[in-house]
Batch of 3 targets.
Target 1
Amino acid sequence: MAKRFVIYGLLGWTMEILWTGLGSLLKGNLMLSSFTYLWMFPIYGLAVFLEPVHDEIDNLPWYLRGGIWVIIILSLEYLTGWILMSFLGRCPWDYRQVTPYHLQGLIRLDYIPAWFLAGLVFEKIHRTLDKLVL
């Protein structure tokens, strides 16, 4: 489980760096500036605890599974943001100045399609990790 925690943490960091770099490009930043937070490593690593959920919903159609992942991911993003805000006095990510489609600055509702896809990609990663000897 510890190895998978590290794998998910590193993959999450990589995904976030690529996502924010692409966002920079779309804003005209040819340097493709990217960023993440150290806090994100353990948050993404928590995906290891979602593997049993994937095992349970694997027989559902892809569009239902994607919807389930959206609910789970947004809930976890809100919860971890709220926990960080409680302990740090603020959340490292704050969407209030970025989009009107946010909930208390902790989650972005316009990211629903991205989280839908991310959940389905997570399933493929989980299946691949199950095939590997770790």
Target 2
Amino acid sequence: MKMIINFSVSRYLALAIKEFIHMARDRVTIGMVIGIPLIQLILFGFAINTNPRHLPTVLINADNSPQVRTLVTALQNSSYFDIQHNHISVAKADRLMQEAKVQFIIQIPANFSRKLIRGEKPDMLLITDGSDPSASAAAVSAVEYLVGHVFKDTFEKNGLAYLQNKSSSFNVVVHNRYNPEQITQYNIVPGLAGVILTMTLVMITGLAITREREQGTMESLLATPVTPLEVMLGKITPYIIVGYIQLLLIVFAAKVLFSIPILGSVLLLLVVTFPFIIANLIVGITFSTIAKTQLQAMQMTFFFFLPSILLSGFMFPFYGMPKWAQWLGEILPLTHYLRIIRGIILKGNTFETLFSSIWPILIFILIVGIICIKRYRRTL
């Protein structure tokens, strides 16, 4: 009661104004307060799509008849299939799917039209990339709908009315490659390795230099005869081991707990994970050189982690996002690492196949590493 009686509005306003001034001077915090909600609004509102369309598709067509052209046009008009590759070999198509550059391969045999007119119900092969089953479900349903509707007008105009009464004029053979049973864990668990490494490594290294500054040991670090590159490498080296321990735990759990078959080389996985670990550690160190406090470093970590998890293809189909979101996603190391780890575990990819996803991470390391060295201050 006495505390309420002694309450002073003027003292309260003075303290509130002081806090507003401190908050206004903290540009990093202000940027996070405004930036994070804007990122969430834009990404969830525009970039995220649970019903992906215009998915990259390879068409291998051995029957260029009017009926087949009608079928191909119907597939494109469904808006699920974006035929980006045509007149290529089966081996080239398989390579593109291994590299996660296409979601579907459509194969139409040479005698498709002849069997169609005879009422023999020819087969059309639809191969999907089962490493991301959520991206294919709606498209497969669209194809199954076309089976009974795409040729109705064609049959009527060409005197093939006897074929209209059939429930389906051709068969669609769906082959879910790399994940035939469409088990969700096959997609999620390998991807979790990249997500966990991104979150933990950026966070713990983001606190490295700010911790020195807050604990008062920064003066000793600056007094030592070391270059910025030596400081950066010295700070991240212990956490490389931490990253590998996390990766091995996840791979062990994937095999033992979730019974996920590991088709590729675990040794290759360890080798190609090294650039990804370095990329995340350098991001954390860069944040640490920019932030003045550990709180600011944590805020920057969240600022980096949120787009990574949303734009990489971990939570939502990558090719279901608009092009501008895909371009942003291609900048992030997690996008490429998801293709690497899923490629090794689910597809048995080799280093040659994976290189298209490795070199963007190396470029990211070079650019962010230069920024980090430039941002490191030799004085307080």
Target 3
Amino acid sequence: MSEINTDFLKQCILTLEKSYEYLKKSKENSIEFEMYRNSLVKSFEMALEQSGKLLRKKITPYFATKKAVNTLNFKDLFRQAALYNLLTENDATRWFKYRDNRNNTAHDYGQKFAQETLNLIEDFLEDVKKLKGMIENG
């Protein structure tokens, strides 16, 4: 199997980490706080989507056809990864929570959504780094 390129995910993680770092140093309700929070939310969304795309590539060898993998929705993708011991069931459950949070953006781009995303960021950073390592190293 060819190596899966994780460069873009790595960049998303770095942007997410920096945004979070600067956000914590910013005064709430300042324009800087808003900028870093917006960057953090967007970086979260991008890292989440990229994680799903890369995981799809990673689990393809476990399926008879690429088409079968492409029919999986995001949560089924993570369920299958847990089934094949690429992730634990607890890992997959946290990824479901991240996805549910992301899906809420279609309905609520306000402060409530941003705060919910902030509440998930530390766990998400840990999980996305772990997922990146698994994709790179098996």
